[in-house]
Amino acid sequence: MDRRWLMSAMMMGVVASLLVVLGRAGNETAHAGYPTALAPSLVTPSGHQPLPLRPIRVVCTTAMVADLVRNVGGDHVEVQTLLGERVDPHTYKPVLSDLNRLQSAEMIFYSGLHLEGKMGRLLHKLESQRPTVAVAESLPHSRRLAEDDTGTTDDPHVWFDVAAWADCLPAVRDALTRYAPQHADEFAANASRYHADLLALDAEVRTAIATIPPERRVLITSHDAFRYFGRAYGIEVAGIQGLSTESEAGVHEINALVNRLVEQRIPAVFVETSISDRNMMALLEGCAAKGHAVRLGGRLYSDAMGHAGTTEGTYPGMIRANVQALVSALGGTDGTGLIQR
């Protein structure tokens, strides 16, 4: 029996099982207007001073989304992330352990705009059972980039425009407030504080990128994930693969990028932490064959952040690490102190 056919059939069975179990759960659970699942406030024997309630159990698909939720929810949320470092959300296939986490969650936050491609059906099923929020889909259509000329699908990589990602915070704040209105003031204050922090980060990125000579502001990566970054900070971007890593790069695409690198004398290209660098190696070999030496400028964080507990495991740390790599490889200077933070 064909091994690939067998693996595909097994995965279809897993997804089908997930949906069946979730469907049963949906018949037993109704969430109209985000009613809180938290237990009523407990009181001391004296009848005074309510004891603190436990945190809301939250599951997020990506670390970027989890970063927003943690900063808004503070001590009132207990966040688990499904997809860790070096995991590609475009191609990730849900497994039974994901079901256990999702079933135990009181709220679910995901990025949306088809980023979690193979999990999409599962996430939409959950929307009828518990508060399930697609944070990037809260961004107005006028702020989104279309995937292609048809305009029917949006580019999901919103977080690379820091100001746009900051504007997704109200969706998190409002969802948490509907679920736990007793903490509304704290959620609002946290969201406001983090929004200001991210706008300051946005300004830092603009200042750092501006130090790169204009003719060198070209970012070529493994897949086309940085278009929001390019629009926000004035950099040309191109990816060997398309918006989704499920698309395969062909010889024509690689040759076109080789010609561009040679003609514009671009000194560096970048690989991504969550994607194989096989196609990028072919690109470098093509440039070398035409007498133009191109080096790897570094590994960028794209669809996944760094290891939890590290600087790069936070959203600001991820952005700063990427900017450091770009500025260093493309001939800029760091007069803002951005790199050292």
UniProtKB/TrEMBL annotation:
Gene3D superfamilies: Nitrogenase molybdenum iron protein domain
Subcellular location: Cell envelope
Family per record: Belongs to the bacterial solute-binding protein 9 family.
GO biological process: cell adhesion; metal ion transport
Lineage top rank: taxon: Bacteria
Alphabetical list of InterPro entries matching this protein: AdhesinB (IPR006129), Bact_metal-bind_prot9 (IPR050492), Lipoprotein_PsaA-like (IPR006128), ZnuA-like (IPR006127)
Name of this chain's protein: Manganese transporter
